[in-house]
Amino acid sequence: MAYANQVLHYPAPQTDIAKLLNKYRSIGKLKQYQHNQQHIALNLLTWQLDNGGFSTEREAHYAQPWDGVTAKTKWMSQGVELATIDDGATIAELRFLAQSYDNSNAAQRQQIKSGFTKGLDWLLKAQHPTGSWPQVYPLRHHRPYSNLATFNDHAIIRVMVLFADILTQQPPFKTDLVPEEYNSILEQALERGVEFIIASQISNDGQLTIWPAQLDPISYTPKQARAYEFPSKSSRESVGILAFLMNYRTVNNSAQNRRINQAIDAGIRWLKENRKPDLYYDKPKGMFISRQGSSLWYRFYEVDNNQYFFADRDGKKKLNISDVSMERRTGYSWAGDFASKLIAAYEQGAASPSTPAEDTP
């Protein structure tokens, strides 16, 4: 089954919509190795966990192959090594491997292909039955919030953009890197992911709003993560979700397309209604300042209403940023111009086009 017959991505001239996803394609600190990709790719593969995933904050180690002693991951649970999608981990490594594939020799290509598919298998195993992804896998015991469905820091969206790029052969995936038999598997994983997104959009008084940062993967209930990450509606994370939905349509499922359009329209409406004009968050100073023409959204809002809030490591909500410690004020993204580009793309008329023909062959 060809993926092009399942999902459409909007082509040029609707480039502003396509560009919304670029930030979720980052390889982060691995950019430092792009001058020597083939060599670093082979080193990187030696740091891959037996389960197929990777850890965070291991980029500096990739300059050398694994020494057989250094811990490959900082994530452990009951003696089991855990891999993660936190902060772009695993996704960045897989994208780096894909970038290095074409210019490698035959032996290198085989190693890279094997490691890449092993990483894909880990991502597929990690997916919750309802369609979301946890922060780490296998599931973690002493910090159960890591097992939640994790939109926080765009974790789920990075996975879904990767799958969609592979299936639509976006660069660097226009190769034989991914075996053809993965197409239907990745299609189904994406379909479940979209269904989860639609089902997890928060409703207030019968009106769809936006999404939480993390939630129970079965009940869809917004949940707390760290002490300062309360159950909430999260504007920053919702922008990534909406950007993905705006680039995604199924051809043979008009009912899902209608629900996608409804989710987009409701999310954009909420973002417009809760935009704070002429205000800017100066993160290095940990304070809000007036700035003519600026737009701002607070990161977190109450689940049941639109009251924004902040929090600190003491596990208490604050309504005034000055009540938050300076360490958390400057070390966390409490507000920002998260949604202006998204809204501009939507208003160009490309966000809610007529549903594509369901009978496309």
UniProtKB/TrEMBL annotation:
Keywords: Lyase. It is an enzyme of class 4 (lyase). The keyword Transport does not apply. InterPro entries: Pectate_lyase. It comes from the Bacteria. GO terms for molecular function: pectate lyase activity. Its EC number is 4.2.2.2. Gene3D superfamilies: 1.50.10.20. Pfam families: Pec_lyase (PF09492). NCBIfam families: pec_lyase. This is Pectate lyase. It comes from Neiella holothuriorum. The gene is pelA.
